[in-house]
C-alpha cells in the first residue's frame, strides 16, 4: 500500500480531510461541519471539540482510503484570524475561539487603526476581523486574558505534537507582524495587549511527531507520523496551483473572490488596496492578494442556476448601449431594489452589466499587481464558480486573456497534504500530471471591444475596489 499524506482544511463552514499519495493523487476526502457554539456575544468555537471532530474525520478518511499503513505526515490549512488562549504546558484551552467574521471587536479595530496605522509594515489594516482587534477585545472584556495564544488552524497539530507554534501566514493575519522583516512588531503587540505568543514557523517546517492518543490508537497514525506547519487556507490553496506553474496568478472564485500572486520584489502604488504578506513557501519576496465579494455581487440577480443558464443567451450587443457599470456597494444596493429585487426574472436583464463590472474589478487588480512587481503570467481560476464553463468563457473575454482551470475541488486540503509530503522528503516538487487543466480563450473581437470599455473606467480604482474585504 502506498504511503499517504493528510491535509486538513479548517474552514469557516466545514472541516475537511484529504489523503494523497507521493504522486499527489487523492485517495479519499471527507467533510463535516465546523463545530460551533455560542457565548453571550455571538458564535464561538470550542477548540477541544474541534480537535475531536478533526480526529474523527481523519480516521474516517483513512478508513475510506482502504489504507493499512498509518499516515506518514499531516499538515493543516484554514481560517486566518481565529485563535484562543491555552495553558502553557498542557495546551488546554483557557478561552473559546472567536471566529473571524464576528464583529464584536469593531470598536477595538477602529481604536487601533486610528492610533497605529501600520499597513506598510503588516500589509493589512486593522479591521474587526483581525486577530489584533480580538486580542484587545478579550483584554478589555475577559477577567482571564493570561495564557499562550495559538491559532485555531494550528491547534490540532500543536496538541498532537505537544509543541506550541504559529504558522507564519497566520502570524501575518494578526496585523502585528512585519511581513518584510518577518518578525513581530512590539509596538503593535503592546497596543493590542497581545497574550504570550509561541514561536513562528514557516510553512513546511516539521513541528514534531504525533504523540500517543486517539489517532495512534485508531491505527490511522503512529508515533512516527510527522506533523508539519501549514498556514492560511488562501495561500496554501494557491500553492497547489503554483506547483503546476510557479508564476501563476490565481483567481479563486468562491463566495468571495481571491486574486493571489507572488513577487520577488513588491513596489505598490501609493494608497494601494492590495494586501501584501509572506509567501507560503518562498524564502524571500512577498505574496500579493485582493479579496472581492463576487458572490455577494452576483446574488443580486437571484439563484445562481438562473443567471448561469442565462449566460449562454447574452452577446456583445447587450453591452453596447451603456457605459461600464461598476459594482460599488451603493450601486449594488440600488440594483437590489430594482425590478422587484433578487429572484425576479427581470433582474436577469442586469446580468451583462454585473458580469462585466465584476470582471473589470479583477482586471484592474491584475493590472495593479503587474505594476507592483508580479510577473506577467497565466491566470488560473479555481473555486465553485469556476466550474461553470459559460462563466469561464465570458470572463476570459472580459479579462482579455486566456484562463486556465484545474480540476481539483479541495485545493487547500491537497495543498496542505503536499506540504506534509514534501517536508518528509517523499516527493519534492513533483508536478502532478494527473491534474486536468482546461483552457478558455477570449473571443478576439469581443475582447477588443471590452478592452476599450475597460479603458473608460481603469483609473477609477476607488469605485472598482468598493467591495474590498
Features:
FGGY_Carb_Kinase; Nucleotidyltransferase, domain 5; 469 residues
Fold blueprint:
Blueprint: E1 4-10, E2 14-21, E3 26-33, E4 37-38, E5 43-44, H1 47-65, E6 73-78, E7 83-86, H2 106-115, H3 119-122, H4 131-141, E8 148-151, H5 155-161, E9 166-167, H6 168-171, E10 177-178, E11 183-184, H7 186-191, E12 200-201, E13 206-209, H8 214-218, E14 226-232, H9 233-244, E15 249-253, E16 257-263, E17 275-277, E18 286-292, H10 294-299, H11 304-310, H12 329-336, H13 351-372, E19 379-382, H14 389-399, E20 403-406, H15 411-423, E21 437-440, H16 444-457, H17 461-464
Parallel strand pairs: 1-6, 6-14, 9-12, 15-19, 19-20
Antiparallel strand pairs: 1-2, 2-3, 4-5, 7-8, 10-11, 13-14, 15-16, 16-18, 17-18, 20-21
Helix pairs in contact: 2-4, 9-15, 13-14, 14-16
InterPro entries: ATPase_NBD (IPR043129), Carb_kinase_FGGY (IPR000577), FGGY_C (IPR018485), FGGY_Carb_Kinase (IPR050406), FGGY_N (IPR018484)
Keywords: Kinase, Transferase
Protein name: Xylulokinase
Folded structure, characterized:
Helix 9 packs across helix 15. This protein folds into 2 domains: 230 residues, Nucleotidyltransferase, domain 5, CATH 3.30.420; 191 residues, Nucleotidyltransferase, domain 5. The protein has a 7-stranded mixed β-sheet, sandwiched between helices. With 469 residues, it is α/β, with parallel strands linked by helices. It is built from 17 helices and 21 strands. The two termini are 44 Å apart. One of its GO terms (biological process) is carbohydrate metabolic process. One of its GO terms (molecular function) is kinase activity. This is Xylulokinase. Keywords: Kinase, Transferase.
